[in-house]
Amino acid sequence: MRALNYLELEGPLQRSGWGTAAAQQRKALATTEIEVLTSPLCGGDLEGAATSLLTGEGLVADYDLAHCNAPGPASLAVARHAKRNGIPLVLHAHMTAEDFGESFRFSSEIAPFLKRYLRWFYSQADLVLCPSDYTKRILDDYPVEAPIRTITNGVDRDSLAGHEDLREEYRERFELEGMVVFALGNVFERKGLTDFCRLAEATDYDFVWFGPYDTGPQASETVRRWTQHPPENVRFTGWVEDKRGAFGAGDVYLFPTKNENQGIAVLEAMACGKAVVLRDIPVFEEFFTHGEDCLKCSTHEEFRAALDRLAENPDLRERLGEGARATAAEHSLERVGRELSRVYREVTTA
Fold first, then answer.
1. Is the pTM of this model over 0.70?
2. Neighbouring residues of 130: CB distance < 8 A, sequence distance ≥ 6
3. Cα–Cα distance list, 89 to 8, 19, 31, 261 (Å)
């Protein structure tokens, strides 16, 4: 079978969760019998497609199934081509209107209109994939008029190998000492930016957020305020070339996100054996257990108490880290490859 596994705007989205998820799908599928294409165009790009067109081979590549990881116009074109030509179509719901809010300037105002589009877009699919039962419930409530199945985004543990060796380099680079509280990923208010900074203000620990943030007109007022005027014990690093350095430098992964579909970076932190502190929201109930592989909190006071417990009790950090490793192992790319391969086969034979 030849399957198109497509992420439009792959370059700009490389630093996003969508980019990580698509890359992990392809790596997982490489261990199966599925042949994967990453572009719908013959030759893999516009230049190759133009050459192919001139030689009479056509513009669009030949594939047995289309799997799109974004809901943009290029993916819509792929979806329409698939429907016209009887090609099975899988759409991956990495985004909902609910988790789009509080991301960019005006994103919360746009979210209701986005919901209508996503309901229509996802309904074009022969099958919608999403990373959690929580997301499936949201899509069912829209309602999306297509079958919906959950599949973990997984975690690429091989990509994190050697993170310990980068500990001193990254701690020295960002002037970090003691128990370091950290986050990784794009800096958004939805991901708990204000709570992250307020907790830093209330404690003496070093806090660091590894990841890019916008400063232009699309940036939210909250992101600009905190990144330009952070508390004294907070570092915003911007993009880091090697995420292993973040996991090497940090000790406690703090993620007070307000809405999430799964949380790849959480699984990465767990795979590195880090103690993890999460906001107690419904999606995390599916995957993580308070006191076994993480600590879950709801209020500022609970978050601060959790950080203090972990600072005072290194044995607790180690125990939670071991539990976290075991949880991350349940989300291996081998599992993703098996499940995706089975999904592709089922959709093409339906």
1. yes
2. 92, 93, 94, 136, 139, 148, 149, 150, 151, 261
3. 15, 20, 22, 22
Cα separation, 211 vs 186, whole angstroms: 5
Looking at residue 80, its pLDDT comes to 97
Identity (one letter) of the amino acid at 110?
Answer: I
| Rounded Cα gap, residues 343 and 66, in angstroms | 12
pLDDT < 50 regions, the chain: 49-50, 54
At 181-190, the pLDDT tens digits run 999 999 999 9
Quick check: 55 and 42 in contact, CB under 8 A?
no
